[in-house]
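To the wet lab folks,

You asked to see what we're planning to order before we commit. Fair enough. Below is the target structure as tokens, and below that is the sequence we designed to fit it. If anything looks off to you, flag it before the synthesis order goes out.
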């Protein structure tokens, strides 16, 4: 008898393992083109600058910028929403962990029973029954459904952590961008107001010359037109300044006008020291640090695990359970050996005929997994595009700012020469007007380019996930309930190309 049981047990175990293997399909493979060995727009300028990967904004050495970014990371509503969703994902991961363990419920009850007895169906006296006990239930994870749900939940937690880090990075970059645009607008407004004062002084001079018969009405009206044209640009810059202050306040989780007093005073742009980009490394080593790529990769892993969950519904579920306790007609008798009862057993549930419902769910899960994989591939390519574009923009804006600085100095000198020659009657006033317009345009473009250079550098930091430096050491993946996410924290363990497992 024993010899006939063991082969049967081995056959059942082999079938269970085979079905469990069938419940999870092969992992998806990305269809990415080969990554380049180096960025195309990196200038060869020596060693890397060594900026910190977490708090890149501190490299600008501006206390007010530091305070704004810190406030935004603490109070921004989008970030608080992301943190709340991350807490939800962690709670669901704990739920998936608990689903692998038995569930034990304590029970207690009281009831009264009255029934008909005897051949004449006479009504018997009522009886009261008391019960106390434990109900135990455990689903055997023979075909990997619960394990797949656990893997999906853990991947979702890590994806939520990466999404939160990506939002922190984007928020920091957005605050820095808004701050530099604010300082650039303040400089443009200062230039316009200073030019307006100069042009008003020229208008008074031309008017005085006309009054004494040395000038013409044409020169006076041209000077007045230039004054009004410059004055018309001032409200536009003031409105842009207000909108930028409002945007910064909302990013910091404040009402739109809350930072008006704090940001009203004009300050120069932070000094932008030369940043070396020649040693930032290859795309594969740097883009793996980007949290959006890690999040997309983990979304693929979660979707692949959910395919395993859907496939497991093709196979039976086996549940073990029972009840241990006492039943008695009096409360005082509970606990006596004679009142002890138990009920132990197993249940098999197998969906034999569902008219394609499970197959449809598997097809939907496969489609979602395919979509997640395509999103990952698109995210990698978008990251490459963003990084190359940011590097190119930074290099060219640096060159533009230098040319515009030289142009502004030349235009200022030309305007001063034109005014001096006009005062002694060597040239007519039209040359002065042209020189004034060129001077204002050159100084305004210089202010824009200086702010643009700072914004371009922020874009480089953002594209490279905060900065660059030594590549992080690989480490084991964080657990589903591992610690909180802080500003700029980086989780390691992701890789390119993607390798999702189920």
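Sequence we intend to order:
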């Amino acid at each position: 008898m024993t010899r006939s049981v063991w082969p049967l047990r081995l056959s059942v175990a082999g079938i269970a393992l085979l079905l469990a293997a069938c419940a999870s399909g092969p992992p998806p493979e990305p269809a990415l083109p080969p990554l380049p060995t180096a960025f195309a727009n990196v200038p060869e300028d020596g060693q890397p600058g060594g900026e910190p990967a977490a708090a890149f904004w501190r490299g600008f050495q501006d206390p007010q910028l530091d305070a704004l970014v810190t406030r935004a990371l603490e109070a921004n509503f989008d970030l608080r929403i992301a943190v709340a969703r991350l807490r939800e994902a962690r709670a669901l991961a704990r739920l998936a962990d608990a689903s692998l363990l038995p569930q034990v419920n304590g029970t207690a009850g009281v009831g009264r029973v009255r029934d008909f007895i005897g051949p004449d169906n006479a009504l018997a006296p009522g009886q009261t029954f008391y019960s106390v006990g434990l109900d135990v239930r455990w689903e055997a994870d023979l075909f990997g459904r619960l394990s797949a749900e656990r893997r999906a939940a853990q991947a979702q937690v890590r994806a939520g952590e990466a999404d939160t880090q990506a939002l922190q990075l984007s928020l920091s970059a957005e605050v820095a961008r808004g701050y530099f645009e604010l300082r650039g607008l303040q400089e443009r407004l200062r230039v316009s107001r200073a030019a307006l004062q100069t042009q008003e002084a020229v208008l008074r001079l031309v008017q005085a010359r006309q009054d004494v018969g040395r000038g013409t009405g044409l020169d006076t009206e041209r000077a007045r037109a230039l004054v009004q044209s410059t004055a018309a640009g001032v409200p536009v810059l003031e409105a842009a300044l207000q909108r930028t202050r409002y945007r910064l306040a909302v990013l910091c989780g404040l009402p739109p006008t809350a930072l008006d007093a704090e940001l009203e005073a004009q300050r120069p742009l932070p000094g932008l020291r030369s940043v070396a980009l020649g040693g930032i490394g290859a795309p594969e080593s740097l883009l793996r640090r980007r949290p959006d790529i890690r999040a997309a990769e983990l979304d693929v892993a979660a979707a692949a695990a959910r395919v395993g969950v859907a496939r497991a519904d093709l196979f039976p579920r086996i549940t073990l359970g029972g009840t241990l306790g006492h039943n008695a007609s009096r409360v005082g008798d509970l606990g006596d050996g004679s009142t002890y009862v138990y009920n132990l057993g197993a249940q098999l549930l197998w969906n034999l005929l569902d008219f394609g419902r499970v197959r449809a769910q598997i097809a939907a899960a496969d489609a979602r997994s395919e979509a997640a994989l395509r999103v990952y591939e698109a995210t990698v390519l978008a990251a490459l595009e963003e990084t190359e574009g940011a590097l190119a923009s930074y290099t060219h804006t640096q060159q533009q700012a230098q040319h515009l600085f030289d142009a502004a100095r030349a235009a200022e000198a030309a305007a001063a020469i034109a005014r001096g020659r006009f005062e002694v009657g060597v040239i007519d006033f039209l040359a002065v007007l042209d020189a004034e317009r060129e001077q204002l345009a050159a100084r305004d473009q210089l202010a824009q380019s200086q702010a643009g250079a700072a914004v371009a550098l922020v874009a480089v930091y953002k594209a490279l996930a905060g900065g660059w430096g030594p590549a992080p050491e690989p480490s084991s993946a964080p657990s589903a309930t591992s610690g909180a996410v802080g500003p700029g924290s980086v989780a390691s363990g992701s890789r390119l190309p993607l390798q999702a497992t189920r």
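Structural context that might help your review: The chain has ten helices and six strands. Confidence is low (pLDDT under 50) at residues 1-21, 46-53, 469-502.

Thanks,
Computational group
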